[in-house]
Amino acid sequence: MMGQGRMRSLNNQKRDFKQATKALFMKYTVIPVFFLFFVFFSFTYIFIYFKTINDTEETADNILRQVNDIYDSYRNEILELADSTKVKDFLKNNQNSNLVFEEFYNFNNKQKVKSVFTLVNENGKVLLSTNRNQIQNDYHFTRFINYIKKNPDKIAMDVMESQVSRGEMTTLSLGKSIVENKNVIGGIVLQLYENDILNILFSENIDIAIVTDKFDNIIATTNDLAKGIMNKFRLEYVGRSKVKINEETFYFSQRDSYDGQFKIYTLKSAKNNSMSLIYFGFSLLTGTILYFLVRILAEKMASKNAQSINKLVTAVQQLQRGNLDAYVDFKDDGDFTENEFVYLYKQYNDMVNSLDQLMKRNAELARIRRISEIKLLKSQFNPHFLFNVLETLRYTMLVDTKKAEQIIMTLSKLLRYSYDATGEEIPLENDLEYTIDYLQLHKLRFQDRLNYEIHIPEKAKEAYVPKLILQPIVENSLKYGYKKKMKMKIFIKGRIDGNILILSVYDDGSGIEPEKLQELQELLSKEENATEQIGLYNANRRLKILYGDDFGITISSTVNEGTEVELKMPYKTSHYE
């Protein structure tokens, strides 16, 4: 079967010398190049991917650090202004406004992000402002002032756009009530310029950067594509670290400020990775064209070296089909005289001759080995029961000489039968007679403590079975049955199931302990036996050697209930089946 499998594989693949030469050329030229090409572009794509992710993360961290610094500066400043004596004196006396402006400008001029300063009284009326176009009745501004008054202990923050005098916009407002003696006497509002925040965002090497508050209201963004309804930033997630804005895919990173007031989003277009894929595809197409050109060249090169080997390959294929007469005829090949192929042809023909002789010798050796192993296994049965019988005979001779004589006669009959070399297989009926003599021999020893019954159909008795096949099974019952019981009964049964003969030996004795039973079952599955348990093992081994692995012995046992051994073998009524 294995030879036929190899033959079919060879025929299907048609691996002749020309193909092998061509494959060798492809293996050591094109395949390594394509492999390096694949590794290079895979590495490039992965490198671009991770660099893109790393760029978005580093940029987000850098922007967040600056935003945190700005927010901390303004938060500290608004607390100082709200507690400033100059500010409070102005609210009370409406004098020395220059001192208030001086204090604000000392702070504002040092900031990266500048702001508009507004001071209101307890009624929300604007008293001072650096924004000349400050609208007193602006709805959002008024709402923000009212919120400050209602929450005097908090620093309020709101995202709202306001036009300033020089045509610029403020986008983020911070406010705080001015409290004296637990009474609100006014309020301060600092409104940060949008352009100054954008300058920070545009200084980063990123496609889109967005700063929002904790509710995703956009404070500043480098691209208006990010702006949604009501100035909200909304993400459409399309994969891990990927979002889509207006049908364009971006890699993104998000960072939150330490107090949760701000969110930073950085986005980088995925087009760079897409371009690398396009470049990869173009290079792959070029490589494929190159591959076919090299393949054609390899075909032409291999064809020049293929003709001389075809005849030898054909002979090998015939040999794989089992044709031991598949010699190479090279007498008419004058062109090959005195070259390497003539040497190969001669060596091949010599090998075929040697192979034919070797197979014949191996078959004969296997037959001799099989016969020798069976004889060895069968011979191992005798010492076990012979020892038991001699022990019984030794005690019986002292108390009952007639019974001892009967034991000797029966033993003599058994020994003649076991050493009779008439054949390996005998009719079951003959082997049953031997088994009955064997049981009778032990019956003389155990008296009423041992009983047996045999129920085998006449048709089953015609079957040919291995000689002495039942004796070791009965011996096993006697070995384990009396360990915990004084009496025991053995049942020998048989049946025919299709083309299978099944014999069973059951006893109602002590049974076998689970650990010992498992040991016996494992022993039966092995091809070699290093233990002293040879009876059951040898019977099982003989069945497998004679008939194959589908046949043999199975054993089952229950403690204090008994043991059953089942023998399975082909049903045959002659030696020749």
Tags for this entry?
about 575 residues; alpha+beta; Beta-Lactamase; Heat Shock Protein 90; six-stranded antiparallel beta sheet; five-stranded antiparallel beta sheet; 17 helices; 18 strands; elongated
Molecular structure report:
By secondary structure, the protein is α+β, with helices and mostly antiparallel strands. Among the domains are: 83-196, PAS domain (Beta-Lactamase, 2-Layer Sandwich); 315-374; 380-570, Heat Shock Protein 90, CATH 3.30.565.10. Helices cover 52% and strands 21% of the residues. It is built from 17 helices and 18 strands. The strands form 4 sheets. The chain has a 6-stranded antiparallel β-sheet. Helix 10 crosses helix 17 and helix 11 packs antiparallel against helix 12.
Summed up, the helix count is 17
End-to-end C-alpha gap: 24 Å
Q: Please estimate the helix content.
A: 40-55%
CATH topology of the domain at 380-570: Heat Shock Protein 90
The major β-sheet equals: 6 strands, antiparallel
- Per CATH, the class of the domain at 380-570 reads Alpha Beta
Structural class: alpha+beta
Summarize the structure.
With 577 residues, the chain is α+β, with helices and mostly antiparallel strands. It has helices at residues 2-13, 17-28, 30-82, 85-93, 97-108, 139-150, 194-202, 271-303, 307-320, 340-379, 382-399, 401-418, 428-446, 458-461, 471-481, 514-524, 535-547; strands at residues 115-121, 126-129, 156-163, 169-180, 183-193, 208-213, 218-221, 236-239, 242-245, 248-256, 262-269, 425-427, 450-455, 464-466, 488-497, 500-507, 552-558, 562-570.
